[in-house]
Amino acid sequence: MSILDIDVRNKSFGDITVLHDVHLALHDGEAAVLLGPSGCGKSTLLRIAAGLDKRFTGNVLVNVNEPGRRSASPAIAFVFQEPRLMPWLTVAQNIGYADGPRFNAARVERLIADVGLNGHARTLPKALSGGMAQRVAIARALYTEPRILLLDEPFSAVDAFTRMKLQDLVLQLIERRGISFLLVTHDIDEALYLGDRIYMMGARDGGIQHDLMVDVPRPRDRRAPRLAELKNEVLTALQAAHVI
């Protein structure tokens, strides 16, 4: 069952067409990845899916029916490339930002523990490392208890070791909560490690050139031979589409 259906017939910036005839569906419990070179429209498509960009031709349907969900609690949450924390608010206040000063303190406390930031509830963003700040951003996205998480290259600004730790953290959190996610990246290894399905976008016509199912069970070993085989398939598909 799909819980997010994206149909973008056209998205342009002036005379430049960025997306054309893009159709994809995110299924319940699925981890999907948008992979492609810089400038191919990955982030634009993600912003359209989140409702942050409505100037396009097409439709986005969110098929989440949860009678108990608060009207102010969106089914979709977004994690940006940068943490985008409010510098004057503490870690706890940033995480509970959706509810303002009267945030759910118990929920925030649980999320702080979940992302490994115990003892930092009253810390201001300026005292956090890049990886810690992104953990806060992930916790903030999870505060509204979304069913769908959209991530726009959320690990690109940290070192390789921190990146791997954040990847594993996201996997643990979404599996525990039964969340589906759509991730934008240009990193093939990251796409294969995190994704159940990879949509590969072309650089010129703003469309999806190929999609690939990642038939590797979880938990995954980054050194698994099957992932290396799939990496070759991805490279071949991207080369055939003239996008690298």
What brief labels describe this structure?
alpha/beta; 244 residues; 7 helices; 6-stranded mixed sheet
Unreliable residue stretches: none
- Spatially, the strands of the biggest sheet line up as 5-6-7-3-8-9
Largest sheet, strands/sense/barrel: 6 strands, mixed
- What class do helices, strands and sheet pairing give? alpha/beta
Mean pLDDT: 91
Q: Report the sheet-strand fraction.
A: 25-35%
Order of helices and strands: EEEHEEHHHEHEHEEH
Shape: globular
Number of strands: 9
Give an overview of the whole structure.
The chain is an alpha/beta fold and 244 residues long. 32% of the residues lie in helices and 25% in strands. The chain is built from seven helices and nine strands. The protein has a six-stranded mixed sheet with strand order 5-6-7-3-8-9, with helices on both faces. The model has no long low-confidence stretch (mean pLDDT 91).
List the helices and strands and how they pair.
Elements: E1 2-13, E2 16-27, E3 31-35, H1 42-50, E4 57-62, E5 76-79, H2 91-95, H3 105-114, H4 130-143, E6 148-152, H5 160-177, E7 180-185, H6 188-194, E8 197-201, E9 208-213, H7 225-240
Parallel strand pairs: 3-7, 3-8, 5-6, 6-7
Antiparallel strand pairs: 1-2, 1-4, 8-9
Helix pairs in contact: 3-4, 4-5, 6-7
Compact overview of the structure:
The chain is α/β, with parallel strands linked by helices and about 240 residues long. It has seven helices and nine strands; from the N terminus they run βββαββαααβαβαββα.
